Amino acid sequence: MKRPTGTPKRTGRSPVADKRTAPAEPKSPVRRHKAPVRRGNVVVRTIAGTVGLIWRIVWGSMWRLAMVMALIIGGATAYFYAGLPEPQALFDARARGSVTMLDADGKVFAWRGETYGAVTSDKIAPVLKEAVISTEDRRFYRHFGVSPRGIASAIKINLAEGRGPLEGNGGSTITQQVAKLLCLGETFDPIRWKNEAEFEQDCRGGGIWRKIKEVPFAFALEAKYSKDEILSIYMNRSYMGGGSRGFEAASQRYFNKHASEVNAAESAMLAGLLQAPSYFAPTANLQRSRERANVVLGLMGEEGYLTPDEVAQARANPASLSQAAEARAGGYFADWVMESGPGFLTSETTEDVTIRTTFDPRIQTAAERALKRIFDEKVSDNSKAEAAVVVMSADGAVRAIIGGRDSIVNGAFNRAVQAKRQTGSSFKPFVYAAALEAGYGPGDRIEDGPLTIRIPGGKPWSPQNYTRRYYGNVTLTTALKQSLNTATIRLQEAVGRDAVRRIAHDFGIVSNLTTSPSLGLGASEATLMELTGAYAGIRNGGTSVAPYGLIELRIAGDDQPLMGQSGGMGARVISQRAAGQLIYMMQQVIDSGTGTRAKMGTRPVAGKTGTTSSYRDAWFVGFSEQYVVGVWMGYDDNTPLKGVTGGGLPAEIWQAVMTDIHEGLPELPLSTVSPDGSGILLSNDGAPRVVTSGSADDPLAAALAGAVNSANLAGGAPTQVTAPQTPGDSSTASSDDALSRALNGILGGN
Fold first, then answer.
1. DSSP assigned state of 688
2. How far apart are CA 406 and CA 418, in angstroms?
3. Which residue in 70, 98, 478, 494 could disulfide with 113, CB within 3.0 to 4.6 Å?
4. How would residue 161 be classed by pLDDT, with cut points 50, 70 and 90?
5. CB atoms near residue 489 (< 10 Å)
6. CA–CA separation, 448 vs 234, rounded Å?
7. More confident position, 748 or 282
8. Which phi and psi angles does 230 have, rounded to 5°?
9. Which stretches does the entry tag as region Disordered (predicted)?
10. Rounded to an integer, what distance in angstroms lies between the CA atom of residue 371 and that of residue 656?
């Protein structure tokens, strides 16, 4: 069947066509709504817009400012970084050196300036580093030099306690404290600053600008050095009180041990000093320093460096000072040595200096103890009276100095060497020395009675005795032991004031001596050191003495000393015979005269009292065979002493000091010569000994030798012949004294 061809005829509408041609559904008309009209207060809209604008400006400025600040801090950090040297170069913060003083036995007893000893953190006891970190910067190993949390905490504490935000607690890290210690890289300029202390005070000062500069400097430190190196700088430069700079010097100063050897209690005490070195220094107040150490121990326990048992054990066994630090003896002595030496090697030294001295801590402690005992027993608690004591050997070697009742001092007014006071009757021995040298004898007589001396251009002067009584014709011995004024002045006028002045000056009274008749009554001024040294010249047989304390000075590390002893025995002032006679007379002052309160039992001693007009000064100076001791008592403002004379409290102080310093020493006789001038040396056991005047043709000595020789030939026991011994001379007679040798030969039977 044939398929149909062509387009088939459609009888209906095609569904597709229907779709194509069908009219579109009518659409709903689109409504275009207008923007809703804003409603609200125009003021609010204005404020909101303004705030938004400001915020956009501030935000834009802040990030730009932050970028600028970061660049500035980065630049400052780089600048500081470039100027930082090796860490060891920053350890020693001192502009001047130190002086270490050794006593007569070679042991350290005092320091002046700032002592220092370099030590790196790896050589410091770990417990000491832990104590420092616990106290000063717990997050030391976890920050980059600045601790925002610490600063915020400090500001909060300051505000809570009513201070300014930057006053009081600073929140500084150890790194920031090192920045302060380094003065932000500045060095001391003597032209800009009066002294180093003022410079350091400015470095330690607060203020916003300095705090700001600390930040980049701290960053530079952290970038340049390791944490241990920063800690080493801190532990070497920090001032630790007591004249010590750094933990090594402080450990040596307070405990006499190295910083590597300290225990937990000692470490806590040292770390506690960082808050206030002078206030918490154990030499200033040991109990206060221990209380501060207990706080540090607690912090170490909180940080886990110590167990509770270790904290309890350290608190139960607190740190103790070394013997030298605890005694703190010799402050006045050390000050005197510093003043007596050249400034460029002492107070102004740029080197570390060691000085070996004549100081004896046993004698110093005994003298201080004796002085305190007398004042506690005999002087009212509210008394402002002062006292000074000097102890020396007969050759002028000073063993102890007390410059005031407060014996633990440094740089205080030293009444023993700085106060010039009228000497009163303690000057009289020089009048009698002049008379004895001129040929008078202890048994010669002088008139004690009313006396008036006419002074050209002035009013007549009439001295009086202390008792207002006169004793008529008396021996020189009686006049001296009873301290008779009119007899002394008559004797002075007889031998001549110039002779008295010369002898006093040659014995060591270097202060200006008056030319008026009152010279013999001690109207001139002198220091206690001068007067004691002059008496030492009498004690050693008439040879002058220059008091000294320095034996040797050397730069630390040098083998050869730069200085040696600068004082000691000098030229002869009076003969041995005159000196021996004067010693005998001065011995009578204590035995039965104005100085009986100074008696020391059977020990032979000699001395002289002294009281000035109006009782402003009271003295007692005297000696045994071993030591010469001078005592002064008075008020700093020259207020008269009530009821005190040289034979009273000063004599008692002298006796107490002499008793304590002679403990355990043998009783040795003094080289006295009998009042008849015969040359018999009166010893403690009564056995006579013969001395000579030093002249081989002395007829008196020759006659004495003949008499003694006759007595020996008649069967008497031979009598020992000696010359007065000088310090260091163990011989019984001078080898170059012809008469002594002859007498020794005769009386010895040779």
1. E
2. 16
3. 98
4. low
5. 24
6. 75
7. 282
8. -65, -45
9. 1-36, 716-737
10. 7
Instruction: Check if the beta carbon of residue 358 is closer than 8 Å to that of residue 397.
Output: yes
C-beta atoms surrounding 44 within 10 Å: 9
Neighbours of 117 (CB within 10 A): 20
* Tokens read off for 267: 């470490």
Compare 545 and 330 and report the one with higher pLDDT.
545
- In 398-505, the DSSP E strands lie at 398-402, 421-422, 445-448, 472-475
Give me the residue label for tokens 């005197």: 336
- 412 vs 427: CA distance, rounded Å: 27
Taking the whole predicted model, whether its pTM rises above 0.90 is answered as no
**Topology at the third CATH level for domain 98-328:** Penicillin binding protein transpeptidase fold (1.10.3810)
Q: Does position 724 have pLDDT exceeding 50, yes or no?
A: no
pLDDT at 730: 32
Contact predicate 155/167, CB 8 Å: no
Tokens representing 676 are 């008849």
DSSP H stretches of helix in 508-648: 528-539, 576-592
How many residues does the structure list for the chain? 750
Judge whether 364 and 388 are in contact, CB under 8 Å: no
CA nearest neighbour of 423 among 534, 333, 326? 534
Confidence of residue 553 (pLDDT cuts 50, 70, 90): very high
Parse the chain into domains and list their residue ranges.
98-328, 418-545+561-662
The total of other beta-carbon atoms located within 10 Å of residue 680's CB is 19
Q: What does the block give as tokens for 123?
A: 């050589």
Using CA atoms, how far apart are residues 310 and 301, in angstroms rounded to an integer? 8
Nearest C-alpha neighbor of 269 from the set 245, 233, 241, 243: 241
The 3 state secondary structure assigned to 280-344 is HCCCCCHHHHHHHHHHHHHHHHHCCCCCHHHHHHHHHCCCCCCHHHHHCCCHHHHHHHHHHCCHH
Average pLDDT (315-332) is 85
pLDDT at 31: 52
471/387 Cα distance (integer angstroms) = 33
What mean pLDDT, rounded, does the chain reach? 82
Instruction: Select the highest-mean-pLDDT range: 173-177, 342-346, 628-632.
Output: 628-632
Structure tokens at 196: 């180093």
Report angle CA 416, 417, 423 to the nearest 5 degrees.
70
Is the four-CA dihedral 187, 191, 192, 196 of positive or negative sign? Answer: positive
DSSP state of 28: P
Q: What is the C-alpha separation between 490 and 446, in angstroms, rounded?
A: 7
Q: Considering the chain, what percentage of its residues have pLDDT values greater than 90?
A: 48
User: Which pLDDT score is estimated for 717?
Assistant: 39
Residue 54's pLDDT band, with cuts at 50, 70 and 90, is: confident
Q: Answer whether 612's CB lies under 8 Å from 522's CB.
A: yes
User: Looking at 354-363, 507-516, 691-700, which range is the least confident one?
Assistant: 691-700
More confident: 592 or 190: 592
Q: Which of 111, 127, 115 lies closest to 319 in space, CA to CA?
A: 127
Segment 366-384 shows an average pLDDT of 91
Instruction: Read off the tokens for 271.
Output: 């770390």
Least confident span in 21-35, 318-332, 334-348: 21-35
Instruction: Write down the pLDDT at residue 615.
Output: 85
Nearest to 633 by CA among 428, 391, 379: 379
Domain spanning 418-545+561-662, CATH architecture: 3-Layer(aba) Sandwich (3.40)
Residue with tokens 């070195």: 277
Lowest mean pLDDT among 42-46, 107-111, 397-401: 42-46
> What's at 593, amino acid-wise?
G
Name which of 284, 511, 522, 532 is nearest 388 in CA terms.
532
Residues 297, 654: Cα–Cα separation, whole Å: 48
**C-alpha distances out from residue 35 to 38, 39, 46, 49, Å:** 9, 12, 21, 20
Answer yes or no: are the C-beta atoms of 236 and 247 closer than 8 Å.
yes
